[in-house]
Design goal:
The protein is mainly alpha-helical. It has one domain. It is about 70% helix and about 0% strand. The chain has twelve helices and two strands, in the order H-H-H-H-H-H-H-H-H-H-H-E-E-H. It is elongated. The N and C termini lie far apart (about 60 Å).
Length: about 425
């Protein structure tokens, strides 16, 4: 396979993935498929939800079949689906699928990075199914119960039973389509971030060999450039997704904490399902962004450790090698932790890897690099932190804590206005 192409062909490594896009009606590789994609979007993301709310909501139904939160559900899903679809259409049209997924850049990567990234691409659609299918089953059960129990009696096709079957199918397909489009964009962002994590892990190996400082600097600059490209492409989507989902959750909270609000499973169940769906997608985005930012900033720690090991080792080697004290100091400074690797690894869990580890670096990794070059490289890493940014704000764990604090403050303020806590 060749990875230096920008254009795709029918049977390249994206063939199966492109077939999934066609199945989800979001493929826009040709004018015909683009027209069909936009037609399906308008039908199932705009027309069917509006028809369901204004024509099929049944405001005069009994207590079990009334849907007082239907407007919030429809607006939330349609708005986030519209954002996802418009962003995805713009990306694919402007960059093409290969370039958008960075497959044209894999020519410069190692075989390990190529293999793991291609495997993760094939696994991405399974992740979408993992999140969507359980919620889809619950939504289907609710809609079938709602129509089968006689909530809707509008024979817009001349027959009540046939009309209910068609209306139920349209509503279920609309819910599935909007959810799939949103999770697809979230999982694609996770996939692109996964590629950068693979590259960072591969980049971390340069500190285990006697690498040239210039080559290390050039490779890190290339990674930073790709992270800026990802940030530039996704920044509007991340910001608007955060705003829309926050507005949806606060509207839901405001409606459900009103005096005499009915919170039965028949009325609020669909609202809860919608909220869980949106929050799950947002968590995929934020977790992927913070994870890659953490890995990128861990390179600074690795470079600092590399510089420290080299500096200490240079002072030890400068001593008289025949002096027993110097030999003892050398052993004590870099103890062999291979005997304790298993027990330490049990406590470290998944937090420690090749990028962020507590193991000493071998002496041959820095034997020919001067102190000034190492110090200059560490200073560069300390003052040029890489990661995913949204209009200049770094998406790291501190940023997530700030978001959580703001959201919690707004929730407590809203609860104070509604239930008086």
């Amino acid at each position: 396979k060749t990875y230096d192409r920008v254009l795709s062909h029918a049977y390249d490594e994206l063939h199966s993935f492109r077939s999934y896009l066609r199945w989800m009606c979001v493929d826009q590789s040709s004018p015909t498929s683009a027209f069909f994609s936009w037609f399906v979007f308008v039908l199932f993301a705009l027309v069917v939800p509006a028809f369901s709310h204004f024509y099929l909501a049944c405001p005069s139904c009994d207590a079990k079949h009334d849907r007082p939160y239907d407007a919030v559900v429809q607006l939330s899903l349609s708005s986030i689906a519209a954002l996802s679809f418009v962003c995805l259409s713009r990306w694919v049209k402007k960059y093409g699928l290969r370039r958008f997924l960075f497959f044209d850049k894999l020519v410069d990567e190692s075989d390990s990075v190529r293999h793991h990234y291609t495997s993760q691409l094939n696994r991405s659609l399974k992740i979408v199914s993992f999140f969507v299918l359980p919620c889809f089953v619950v939504e289907c059960a609710y809609k079938i119960w709602w129509y089968a129990s006689g909530a809707s009696q509008i024979p817009f096709l001349g027959n009540v039973i046939l009309s209910d079957i068609v209306a139920c199918s349209l509503e279920v397909i609309s819910w599935l389509y909007r959810t799939l489009v949103f999770f697809l964009v979230c999982v694609l962002f996770r996939l692109i971030c996964y590629l950068q994590i693979l590259r960072l892990k591969d980049f971390a190996t340069v500190f285990e060999v006697d690498s040239d400082v210039k080559d290390v600097l050039v490779e890190h600059l290339r990674i930073r450039r790709h992270l800026r490209i990802i940030s530039h492409r996704y920044r509007a989507f991340i910001l608007w997704a955060l705003v829309l989902i926050t507005m949806s959750q606060f509207t839901s909270l405001l409606l459900t904490t009103r005096p005499h609000a009915d919170m039965s499973i028949f009325k609020a169940g669909e609202l809860a399902l919608c909220s869980m769906t949106l929050v799950a997608g947002l968590m995929i985005i934020l977790r992927s962004a913070t994870k890659i930012t953490h890995k990128a900033q861990a390179i600074t720690c690795l470079a600092t450790k590399w510089h420290a090991c080299a500096t200490v080792d240079s002072f030890i080697n400068a001593s008289d090698p025949e002096t027993p004290i110097a030999q003892i100091a050398h052993v004590a400074s870099f103890p062999d932790d291979s005997h304790h690797g298993d027990s330490d690894g049990d406590d470290a869990g998944d937090e420690e890897d090749d990028v962020d580890s507590t193991k000493f670096l071998p002496a041959y990794a820095y034997s020919t690099i001067s102190f000034q070059k190492r110090q200059a490289l560490v200073t560069y890493f300390e003052n040029n932190k890489a990661g995913i940014t949204v209009y200049g704000f770094m998406l790291d764990r501190a940023w997530l804590q700030l978001i959580f604090g703001i959201e919690l403050s707004l929730v407590l303020w809203l609860l104070g206005k509604t239930v008086g806590i």
